[in-house]
Every structure is written in C-alpha cells, then in structure tokens.
Design a protein that fits this description.
Two copies of one chain form a homodimer. By secondary structure, chain A is an alpha+beta fold. A five-stranded antiparallel sheet of chain A has the order 4-3-7-6-5. A two-stranded antiparallel sheet of chain A has the order 1-2. The radius of gyration of chain A is 19 Å and the shape is globular. The N and C termini of chain A lie far apart (40 Å). Chain A binds a DNA duplex (30 and 30 nucleotides) through helix 3.
DNA sequence: TAAGTCGGTTCATATGTCGAACCGTTGTTC
DNA sequence: GAACAACGGTTCGACATATGAACCGACTTA
C-alpha cells in the first residue's frame, strides 16, 4: 500500500457519527503508528482535506473537500439529479431512502434522505456499501459488471446471521434479483433493517448505481413492500433519466412482472 | 513534500473549467514524472478520489469526494448557512457572489452564485484565494489572525498591474479595509473584476471567512457600490448568525460609518 | 512507413517513511 | 499539590518505498 493511499484512508474514518478524531484515537482506529499518522494528517491538513478544531486539536474534514465536491458535481451532476426523486421517495414510503453510485469495484453512498414520518428510522452512515449484504450491493451484483461477483465472493463478511455466507447462497440471491428487477436485503447487513433497491443506469447504458429504501423491519408488511417497489420504479426512472441514461427494456419488463404478480419472496428470517 | 501531499495536490488541478485530465497532461500540469503521477492517480483512484472516464481514460474527480463533503457539511454546516444569503445577494446586486472560508493560512472557496441578470458576469473558479489580491483575501488580512500578513507578504504575486506589489502598499490597503469594514480589490486579481467583501465570524468570535461580490468592472458605479455594500452587510450578518457567530461591534460600527458617509475610496486605476 | 502521441510498465537507485522512545502540556486523582 | 495518565507532537537510525529514465504496445497523423 502506497504512502499516499495510507494517508487517504485516514479520511474514510470520518463520518457523521464520528466527525472529529484526535491523533491518538486516529492511531487506534487506523491501526497505525502515531508518528506516521501525525505526518499523514499534516499532509492532509496542508492540502485542506482536514483541519484542526482550534480548541480540542481534534481533526475534522476540511474545506477543500467542499470545493472538490462542487467540481465533481459540475463534472458528473449525479447528486443534483437524484435529490428530488429521493425526497419524494422518502416522503411517500415514510422510510429512509438513499442513492449509491458504482465507481470501479466499489459502491459509494451518494446522498440520502430520511423521512420525517416516523421517530424511529434507518440512518444511513456508510462510506462504502458491501456488495453481498445490502440491497444496493446486490443490485450492483445483479445488474453491474460481472467482475463484481468475484469481488463480492472475496469479501463475504457475515454482518448478521442472515448475511449470505457462501458463494452459492449469494448466486441464488442475485438470480432472484435479476428476475424481479429489485434488490433486496432482509436484515443481512443490520438486523431490523429491510432493504429494497432498484438499479440506475448512465448514458452508456451501464449500471451506474442504485436507489434504495432502508425500512425498519418491524414496520415491514407486504403492502408496504408493494408501495416501496412502485415508488422505487418511479424514482429509478427519474434518476436514470436525469443521469442521461435509459432503463433497459428487460429491467422494465422485470419490474412490470414483479408488480403485477407480487410473488411473496422468500424472506430468510 | 511528502508523497501523500504530492498525490493530494494532483486533485487541486481539477476545476470546473478543466474537469478531466489525461495522464500525460497531468504530468505537464503538475510538473512531475509520468510514473510517479500514474502511481499517485492509481492511489487516488482506489480511494475513490478520482475515477477514469471509461472511454477517454482521462481522470476526473470520483464519488468519494461527495461523501466527504456530506460529512464535512454535517460537521461544520457552512454551505447550508451561506447559500440562501448568497442567492439573495447575487439576485439583488446582479453580480456574482461567493463565500470563502479560512482554514489555517489558506482561504478556500466554499460556494458561489452567479446572477442571471447579465449575460456577461464574473465566474469564480478558484481553488484558493490569494490573500493580497482578492477582496476576500484582504478581508482575511484585515480581520483574521495577524500571522496571515506574513503569509501574504511572502506571496506577493503580481496578477495585474493593480496588484499591491510591496508590503507597504498592502499594509495601507489593509488599514483602509479595517476602517471601512469592507474588503475591496479593484482589478488586482483579474482586470475587469471589481471585488467587494465583508468578513464573517464563527461561534468563537474569530474571523471565519468572507462573503464577496465579484463585479464586472465596466458596470461598476458609485450607486452599485452602495447597493453592494448594504447588501453585503445584510448577507454577512445572516451568514455569521447561521454559523453560530456574532458580528463584532467594531465591524458593525465601521459598516455604519461607511454606509452613512460614503467616502469615495481611492480606486487605484 | 516513420514519427508523434497516448496510457501504462520496468528496475536500479536513494529518498522519504517507519516506529520505539521521548518531550512538554493538560487534566484527573487522591 | 504530587503523582499519574493521556494527550498532541518530535526525534532518529534502520530500512521500506517512492522515484524517474528508459521502455512498451496501441493508436493517430502525415
């Protein structure tokens, strides 16, 4: 691992849940030496990627990331094209909605939207989405490049007792998703979270990401599932269109089948 | 310069004007070896900071920056607190408005807003703002930490014939800004751009950034100057409040003086 | 076909990185 | 208020890692 890569991974330890990190704490989290971590943070600081809270000396993300995000958004206006549909999706379903984007072999969170309808709701605080355990990830496996399956196979971490634990289970799951057009993760990443997702495509016609709803499992009913699925289709069509893509006919066909013949999908638990 | 820092500086070469950069091109821009540049771009790519345009193989900013920006905004919600005031400012003045934030010794652009009123308008596409040549930068020198002046002194690059070229000129300029409460840069960064700015403060009572209007010089009149100044005050108060700060009494007093006795500031040209 | 570009790769060299041990400061404990 | 622990930050020799000239094959141009 290059030194630059090591420095960059430090950034991934910041999250909304842990926005500020001290030097010693960062050493423990990153599992690296203090001197090394310090120098890396220094480099990140001079580049504006982190800054220090002047009173606590803890590090937090710096203003440079805001600029880069603006440039990225001007280059590939994904977020802008996803936000309105996401808001509507969260509002109608009453659950937390989010969008992920595929870059290389990694599925990144782009933005999310919590619904104000319930006090208890799923909170998305992920840097990257595991391919085998989340609805978005499974969507990527089903509709994205085939190489992704190898990546997923190599990273079959068991998050819960419902996480698909071997290649065969995963392949079965992916096949069913190809048939229905909807990604589905029943408490396979976190217990108490039911995920449903739909694939998004870019101008080149390739899988570009997924739109998903993370639903509190205890609220999940067949009726809600139907609602979420029809709303997902609406949101997915809109976002795909905003990204300059079109939904492939076979996906539309799968959606139509799923919605007209609501098969009671085998929910593992 | 650490290897990590070198890799990070590659990112700063992306901008809205130049959103995609090929390998050879990046070597030329960054002035570094091709092999090194390639490895750095690889590291950045695996971390998600850049991605490759699949057809041209050119590099562009990746999705990871979007996430980091979200975390940053959740940590220090600056952009959200500035955007509405900025929009109003651009709308009323008819010129391009922007907000900068100070981190360490560097002034970064946070967001900007172009006014649709005119076909010709200033476009802000800066990574970092030179302290001695921009209205925001001069504001930082006048109201920010005193160490900044040393940094500015050491970087007196002459962008135009109106750029303050020596320490004495700069000090005079800064003094006049302290007296009026408004930063001012008359074609000292780009010819044809008149800048006016006002300081912003955070919860700790320290200078946190500036709100500024970049005005097409040929449209600049004393009347417009008055309009911009009064609108800047409104915007600065609002943003400072949203950032959890309060405008120091001496700044308010300076603003009041400037607005009631509109002195015709010596415009260098 | 020959010369120019491009993205990407190789390998000997030496430069920048690594981590144990060490500061000085701060805040807590008794 | 002395002893202690944890913090952010620094030093230095050993050595892992970055470096860049030269090279490769693919592609464009003339």
């Amino acid at each position: 691992m290059s030194s630059a890569a090591k420095a960059l991974t430090l950034l991934s330890h910041f999250s909304a849940a842990r926005p500020e990190i001290g030097l010693s704490q960062m050493c423990r989290i990153a599992g690296r030496d203090k001197a090394t971590t310090y120098r890396h943070l220094q480099a990140l600081e001079t580049a504006g990627f982190v800054e220090q809270n002047p009173v606590t000396k803890h590090y937090r993300l710096g203003p440079a990331v805001m600029q880069l995000a603006q440039v990225r958004e001007a280059t590939v206006p994904r977020k802008e094209g996803a936000k309105p549909a996401l808001t509507a999706l969260a509002d109608v379903t009453g659950e937390t909605a989010h969008v992920t984007v595929l870059s290389g072999d990694t599925l990144y969170g782009l933005c999310d939207c919590e619904s104000p309808h319930h006090g208890i709701r799923a909170v998305i605080d992920l840097n990257t989405f595991p391919l085998h355990a989340t609805a978005s990830g499974l969507c990527a496996l089903a509709f994205g490049p085939t190489e992704l399956f190898d990546v997923a196979k190599a990273n079959l971490k068991e998050f819960t007792k419902f996480t698909p634990a071997n290649e065969v289970d995963l392949a079965t799951l992916v096949d069913s998703i190809r048939a229905t057009g909807f990604g589905r993760a029943n408490q396979s990443y976190e217990t108490e979270i039911q995920g449903l997702s739909a694939p998004l495509f870019d101008h080149s016609g390739h899988f570009a990401g997924a739109v998903a709803v993370a639903c509190v499992a205890s609220r999940f009913t067949p009726e809600l599932e139907q609602t979420i699925k029809s709303e997902l289709v609406i949101a997915a069509r809109e976002i795909t269109r905003n990204w300059g893509g079109t939904t492939p006919a076979e996906i539309e066909a799968a959606w139509a089948r799923s919605l007209s013949h609501p098969m009671t999908l085998e929910s593992t638990p």
